[in-house]
Amino acid sequence: MPLGEFELIDRFFREAGCRRGDVVLGVGDDGAILRPPEGFDLIAVSDTLVEGVHFPAGAPARSVGHRALAVNLSDIAAMGAVPAWSLLALTLPRADEAWIKEFAKGFSLLALEHEVSLVGGDTTRGPLMIGVQVIGFVPHGVALRRAGGRPGDVLCISGTPGDAAAGLALLAPDAAAGAISRRARGDETSRVALRARFEYPTPRLELGRQLLDIATACIDVSDGLAGDIGKLAAASGCAAIIDLERVPRSSALAALVRDGVFEEREALRFMLAGGDDYELVFTVPPENREALAELEARGDVWVIGTLVEAEPGTPHVTVRTEQPELQRYLDALPSSFDHFGG
Amino acid sequence: MPLGEFELIDRFFREAGCRRGDVVLGVGDDGAILRPPEGFDLIAVSDTLVEGVHFPAGAPARSVGHRALAVNLSDIAAMGAVPAWSLLALTLPRADEAWIKEFAKGFSLLALEHEVSLVGGDTTRGPLMIGVQVIGFVPHGVALRRAGGRPGDVLCISGTPGDAAAGLALLAPDAAAGAISRRARGDETSRVALRARFEYPTPRLELGRQLLDIATACIDVSDGLAGDIGKLAAASGCAAIIDLERVPRSSALAALVRDGVFEEREALRFMLAGGDDYELVFTVPPENREALAELEARGDVWVIGTLVEAEPGTPHVTVRTEQPELQRYLDALPSSFDHFGG
Predict the structure, then answer these.
(1) FRET label pair with A295: which of A80, A317, B124, B298, CA 20 to 30 Å apart?
(2) Helices A251-258 and A163-171 sit at what angle, rounded to 10 degrees?
């Protein structure tokens, strides 16, 4: 393996990186030596981003660095854990110092914010691909899982879904010239806000830790709201009902629908099936409604549905609306939203 | 990410995989929940294999699965640790069930042998690339490092270097037709043995743990003997002298030199600069010579040189021979063996 680039990255990371006291030995030996706290479980997560699959070719290096860490921190958040250490396996087509510097900046700024140390990894020449692993801590036996939700729990979300998919659509407009010109309309503040939701997602780490005391189950929205809720419901042995009118829409997405940049049904598709939001979806039992009300009052979370008993032969997710015509549209979608985001 | 292949892999791994009691929750949620033992440090290692770079295109899937885990276990061994958990980030050009099954078999058999659980990972479509991370344990504060060797320590190796490079040369003969026909000669048992040393390297985990009580520094030979010894010497602030006549040559490599498959200087280059052996190189101080003698008597290790004071302006590694003509050849090599295997 050519070590040159990793040394380059290591230099940028050392300049901006986070030094934790529990890292006995970091990058530079055969392995890192790490000292976990006693009384805690470890949470290990792993996610790979590939150019052209998980982000558009030519995406800004700083965004790529940010997202590569953020998608992993989001998984840590969904378990209610605190992140600590990261590993980076970077495959690069060439040693482009400016690109690597920006990549390291995007990664490091987020790592610093959440006190995550880069403790190892390697660099290989090949198509642009970023593999990241993060290890975090959670007190023994209390980590949040997808399983654990019960009928009667309410379904909640930590932010406005669909924004990242809308932002990605603005970055990579459809090939049709008409769509391109339509995409170019709309107020610039909203356009910038949606693009930022794709390029710089916010892992909900603080909320994840608060949910340890409140939630019965949790998942992060990476593949699409309805599909990911389907996974939580299936793991919990329940069915989920999403009340479409309760799913929050960001003012930015609403503005671009008003301006005609997106059609209404396009916006609904972003919200229900668009991925990359990295918001948390979680379930709260009746006895914790008061604690939930506090989070709602702070504007951090929205109740968007409920878990019910699973009926044999019915889908894990149903989206319900008060508008009969729209309900017919939703019902006509292939059997269930489980297929979305797959 | 298409989940299909990972579910496929997960199925093969579940059939043959290792279940550890300290894995509270494995593959299938946002993250794995792991319970580390108290009183231990964690060792985290990460290594990526790329088709055409780290193994020949079209290599047997079982070998690829074995090597992807073995190179990481070798890093764990070099720290004197016991492996426990692994993560797998697999990029595949297509979902080829037969290939995946063989890959999983190669990975799983080695994982079972060393009681390593696969606890997470992901699958992405793209050029064949395998990223593996392994986490292991070592008692607080005793992990072996590259730094720690002192002048007067003897340099040792756990096996015969150069075999893997010779095996790779047999697998991927030079383009020249003469070389191809030469490569096809030689006794088949030796050819098979050398190819196996490349395709199925043995991580020296048991020896690594024994070295905790004996060695001052350790590294695994992945990039080439002289270059890797140079890294150990540099990290230890010393210089290393390798006595060429003490470096063990396998009977298989010796046989193929006798048969004219490899020239003598080619064999020397494999031994000194060929990578992929995954043997351990370590340093032993005078006070532990007796314990070392026991390992030597078992035929597990060979003394091949010594650490000396580093002199300003001299290379970190010198290869010494009793044959004056060969010494001139070695001295004429560019400044030091540090460059080998880069």
Answers:
(1) A317
(2) 50
